[in-house]
Design goal:
It is a single chain. This protein has about 425 residues and is an alpha/beta fold. It has two domains: about 280 residues, Aspartate Aminotransferase, domain 2; about 130 residues, Aspartate Aminotransferase, domain 1 (Alpha-Beta Complex). It has 17 helices and twelve strands. The strands form two sheets. The protein has a seven-stranded mixed β-sheet with strand order 1-7-6-5-4-2-3, with helices on both faces. Strand 2, helix 5 and strand 3 form a beta-alpha-beta unit. Helix 3 packs parallel to helix 12, helix 4 packs across helix 5 and helix 4 crosses helix 11. The structure holds pyridoxal-5'-phosphate. The site of pyridoxal-5'-phosphate has 15 residues, from helix 4.
């Protein structure tokens, strides 16, 4: 089926017991066993079924199947936030003493996780000078176990060359992990271009209404963990924490998700609640329509800002003179997402006056809501970085990031116009 249809029907037909057409919210912590033998068989993973909602739940399972199908993967694990998805995905591929090589254009908290939190756990993250494959390759050594990028960087708006990065990862026998939050599978499926693991903050465009935190990890099912057994023993050697389970044998193509669920979700437990899975599923039903309108409005906003003398510069990959324009054509079907940054003429004080004067745009740190949103990354999302690190991530001192919503374009432009008028 096409993605527009999967977004509505993926993973669910109707409830087998009641024939309910909406996905039921299975608000339960646990599930009864038919017998002691049944309970043991469930825990031995010999029979399918549910044991405890920290491990799996029928409502979250629909979300997992739907998003896996949307992204062209074989399995998915939903978690409580995008940050958890990133953390689980990274530590599932690494071990103490190993490292991950990343592009520099990252969401601020991802940068903090990589630069400050994971190293304290013995896993290093190395940031390349740019998102170019040669710059990433320069940092790969015998302990590197994964490459990482955001399809479209938040807020830099850079578009990564997924095929190039996947080729590089596979040349060095490692997976490419891609955060596809900003692009969504409506614009690109990184797995189609060689990505091995895809992560999302479902909080953004997928949920789409700014009501619900959630994250998900999707496994492409192709990475040959067993062929690289010496590099990834955690997938191919018996796991003492799960009575000697070997993940590649138990889960086959979905070993990455199988291990992530059995090791990290089971023991750490950053679970997505069934209610939140339901809300995210509601949002996903309309993601195709929303993304179309987001993208259409964003192009008009970018053109409006660029033509306005009160604006110093606009960073938007959808402009034909952007270095990322060819990649927008290749990977995003010519649609440069709906995130952009720009600089108001007059520097930081003018940017702050503009920001404070916005009426329709909400001042906050979210993106991907149906509403138009504005953020000042240097003082919020990217505040923990030094000025140099901010610049590498595409954040100037006065940069304003817009996430253009799906309101009528006339109202969006009118708000920007009046706020620019207030900049002096
Ligand atoms: C690209 C990207 N990835 C991950 C996250 C983290 O997601 P969450 O807020 O759901 O933890 C964000 C949040 O803004 C993001 O923009």
């Amino acid at each position: 089926m096409k993605r527009e249809t999967i977004a509505i029907h993926g993973g669910f037909d109707s409830d087998p017991t009641t024939k309910a057409v909406a996905v039921p919210i299975y608000q339960t912590a646990a599930y009864s066993f038919d017998s002691a033998e049944h309970g043991a068989a469930l825990f031995n993973l010999e029979v399918p079924g549910f044991r405890y909602t920290r491990i799996s739940n029928p409502t979250t399972e629909v979300l997992e199947e739907r998003v896996a199908e949307l992204e062209g993967g074989v399995a998915a694990l939903s978690v409580s936030s995008g940050q958890t998805a990133l953390f689980y995905a990274a530590i599932n591929a690494l071990e103490m003493g190993r490292n991950l090589v990343s592009v520099p254009q990252l969401y601020g908290t991802t940068y903090t996780l990589f630069a400050h939190v994971m190293p304290k756990m013995g896993m290093q993250v190395r940031f390349a000078k740019s998102d170019g494959a040669a710059d990433l390759e320069a940092l790969i050594d015998e302990n590197t176990r994964a490459l990482f990028c955001e399809t479209v960087g938040n807020p830099a708006g850079n578009v990564c060359d997924l095929e190039e990065l996947a080729r590089l990862a596979h040349k060095h026998s490692m997976p490419l992990i891609v955060d596809n939050t900003v692009a969504t599978p409506m614009l690109v499926r990184p797995i189609d271009y060689g990505a091995d693991v895809v992560v999302h903050s479902l909080t953004k465009f997928m949920g789409g209404h700014g009501t619900t935190l959630g994250g998900i990890i999707i496994d492409c099912g192709r990475f040959p963990w067993a062929s690289h057994a010496g590099r990834y023993p955690m997938f191919t050697q018996p796991d003492e924490s799960y009575h000697g389970l070997v993940y590649t044998e138990q889960y086959g193509a979905s070993a990455f998700i199988g291990r992530c669920r059995s090791v990290y979700q089971r023991t750490v437990g950053a679970v997505l609640s069934p209610m939140n899975a339901f809300l995210l599923l509601q949002g996903i039903e309309t993601v195709a329509l929303r993304v179309e309108r987001h993208v259409e409005n964003a192009l008009k906003v970018a053109q409006f800002l660029r033509a306005d003398a009160r604006v110093e510069s606009v960073n938007f990959a959808g402009f034909a003179d952007s270095p990322y324009f060819p990649l927008v054509q290749k990977y995003l079907g010519g649609k440069a997402c709906s995130l952009m940054t720009f600089e108001v003429r007059g520097g930081l004080p003018a940017a702050m006056r503009f920001y404070d004067a916005l009426r329709l745009f909400k001042r906050l740190v979210n993106l991907g809501d149906a509403k138009s949103l504005a953020c000042h990354p240097a003082s919020t999302t990217h505040r923990q970085m030094s000025s140099k690190e901010q610049l590498a991530a595409g954040v100037g001192p006065g940069s304003i990031r817009l996430s253009v919503g799906i309101e009528h374009i006339d109202d969006i432009l009118a708000d920007l116009d009046q706020a620019l008028g207030a900049r002096v």
